[in-house]
Write a structure and sequence with these properties.
BirA Bifunctional Protein, domain 2, alpha+beta
Length: about 350
Amino acid sequence: MQEIFDKANSVLEEIKSSAPVNAEEMEQFRIKFLGTKSVLKDLFGAMAQLPVERKKEYGQLMNTLKAAAETKFEELKAGFDTGKSSAKEIPDLTAPGYDIPLGTRHPLSIVKNKIIDIFSRIGFVVAEGPEIEDDWHNFTALNTPQDHPARDMQDTFFLTEDKNYMLRTHTSSVQIRKMESEKPPLRYIFPGRVYRNETISARAHCTFHQVEGLYIDDNVSFADLKQTMLYFAQEMFGRNTEIRFRPSFFPFTEPSAEMDISCFICNQKGCAVCKHSGWVEIGGCGMVDPAVLENCKLDPKKYSGFAFGMGIERITMLKYQINDLRLFFENDIRFLKQFTSAV
Ligand code: DAH
């Protein structure tokens, strides 16, 4: 008779000390102590063999057992559900690893790197200048007269403390820094961020990016400029791309031109991107004005050179057919993850 009590007490100990560590062991616990064929069922059955005077005591022990099993099960289950189980989960060492999603580069970086790559192949070296510029480098040395509209408060962010300093409005300022500090031959590209006091829209932003090019040596000609631009256009937009120069004006180049490329989207048949003209503009260029060389203490009789400036957003928009400039600055992951470095 005592055996029956001993058996029940040892099951109670087993319930108290058992510590399932995963779902499978939990299920085994449930089957053993709470299922339809549980050990508790057998113990309840054993009650019949006990004399009447001990039945009450045994009944109470059985209730304790049942409650212990149920409480333990509920506690463990709650622990697993909230992940706060004190039980140590044994990891499944055979499970496959988690995927680490690959990031993508920002489309502007992809295009900037491509431009750098193209020009590096013909000997251009990357250099950078400051984004906070002084009047000399951003305007005066670039032959921009005092009354030029670009100096207007409308276009330029001047520093409030000192109006002689501003956020650079173009990367052309870096040309001056290089010509002042190094002797030709100079063959550089200057990628970087520029700022203009513009109302933000699908076509304009107060901050954007340019790549400036500069080549100074003896005997650099307009033909060299055209050939360099043709090489760039074909590497960037495809071997069949043609270029077109339209006469233009910039204070720091003479002669100056706007450069167009043949529309690679419609093959010059006419589309919305080229506004049915067959050509799209990608930047400005020209021969460095002798006055600019003199400002940098380079002898215009000895040296000549060309310069160009292109908008990275503009090229990226053409390349990927993006129609709203603001997308570049919003960092919406749904937009960004569409780009791979395969331009
Ligand atoms: N700095 C000009 C701009 O921001 C672009 C440019 C035009 C740069 C002609 C040049 C150049 O170097 O030769 O609109």
